[in-house]
Write a structure and sequence with these properties.
Strand content: under 5%
Order of helices and strands: HH
Shape: elongated
Radius of gyration: 14 Å
Mean pLDDT: 91
Distance between the termini: 20 Å
Number of strands: 0
Structural class: mainly alpha
Low-confidence stretches: none
């Protein structure tokens, strides 16, 4: 089994957070909740930041 570097693990986590944020955003748009949309946006920004940092580390 291959060992992943810390940057690769961070990128994997970022992809999971981005996917969760996207699903959360879709659900929030469907329900029309501004608060949920803002929370989903925060998740997407956090996941994007993690992915950006992981790509910079490689």
């Amino acid at each position: 089994m291959t060992r992943l570097s810390p940057a690769q693990r961070t990128a994997g986590t970022a992809r999971i957070v981005l996917t969760a944020g996207a699903l959360f955003a879709a659900e929030a748009l469907w329900r029309g909740s501004i608060t949920r949309i803002l929370m989903a946006t925060a998740l997407l920004l956090f996941g994007g930041g993690l992915l950006f940092l992981a790509k910079q580390a490689d």
